[in-house]
Specification:
about 290 residues
């Protein structure tokens, strides 16, 4: 037993304080794969500014110019900003998920096939976990194991470990779902902004045409006003196009990332079963209780 406690880990340790992308950006890192809203907001502001700085030299072109409407610049800007914020959230979550997945490559149970996990050997696993990560509370799989093993060490009931792991798995799934709440709100709001821009464009164009009809009966003036209406209609529908395309890309990317995160949580459950549950043995008093 003493030899195992001083084993040198062969796995490269993980350091959340150093490797978490939000920590590297000098923001307080969100727990697990949750994001710091201030971090993503700041990134969104920078990305939006860069987007418009790159497009501005081409604002006379019809594609770039659709983001610089003279009559309605606010709606396209809001669409771009929310899209950039969504991209920032997805990028940060993807980076954090990559780090969490690396934790599944670490082993915490001694290679000795006769090792049995009991209240007396729990401290050995705690020791090995702290050798491999700097903070077990910041890694999904190690937080689950720490919670279950703390109960085993304090109460000494092996039969409770599996139940605690299942409860933690359900909690992690709920936490994962709520971490997408802000993003889902953006996916809803972006196309709505596009429709609002379209309605504004239509109202301005039709209102201008109505004014010409009321003030003039000259055919040439009416024809010129009609050209303005058709131009306003194309501008209005471009706003909807921006919103729908942005929402579609973000929704598809979110679906792929969410699927990867769900697969990661399933892998965490399998890891706990392989590294912890399979090494448990019922204690004598628990065997007597079953008889």
């Amino acid at each position: 037993m003493a030899d195992r406690k001083h084993e040198t880990p062969t796995d490269e340790p993980l350091c959340w304080a150093r490797d978490d992308i939000e920590q590297r950006l000098l923001f307080r890192g969100g727990r697990f794969t949750r994001v710091n809203s201030w971090c993503t907001f700041t990134l969104a502001v920078l990305m939006t500014s860069l987007f418009y700085a790159v497009l501005y030299p081409f604002h006379r072109h019809w594609i770039a110019g659709s983001f610089f409407f003279d009559r309605n610049r606010e709606t396209p800007a809001c669409i771009v900003f929310l899209s950039c914020w969504s991209i920032a959230i997805l990028g940060i979550k993807w980076s954090k998920l990559q780090m969490q997945q690396r934790s599944l490559k670490l082993t915490i149970v001694p290679e000795d096939p006769e090792f049995v996990l009991t209240p007396q050997t729990v401290d050995e696993l705690f020791h090995r976990m702290h050798q491999r990560v700097d903070d077990t509370r910041q890694f999904v799989v190690f937080h689950r194991i720490t919670t279950a093993l703390s109960n085993l060490r304090n109460l000494g009931r092996v039969t409770d470990v599996g139940e605690i792991l299942r409860e933690q798995a359900n909690t992690d799934e709920s936490s994962m779902e709520t971490s997408y709440s802000l993003l889902q709100g953006f996916v809803w709001a972006i196309p709505v902004l596009g429709f609002i821009g379209t309605v504004e464009g239509l109202s301005v164009a039709i209102g201008g045409f109505g004014g010409v009809l009321a003030s003039s009966s000259d055919f040439e003036q009416i024809k010129n006003a009609l050209r303005g209406v058709t131009g306003g209609l194309s501008t209005a529908f471009e706003t909807t196009l921006h919103g729908l395309v942005a929402a579609l890309v973000i929704q598809l990317t979110q679906t792929g990332l969410k699927k990867s995160e769900e697969e990661f949580l399933d892998a965490c459950s399998e890891y706990c079963s392989r590294q912890v549950v399979s090494r448990l043995r019922l204690m004598p008093f628990e065997l007597r209780g079953d008889e």
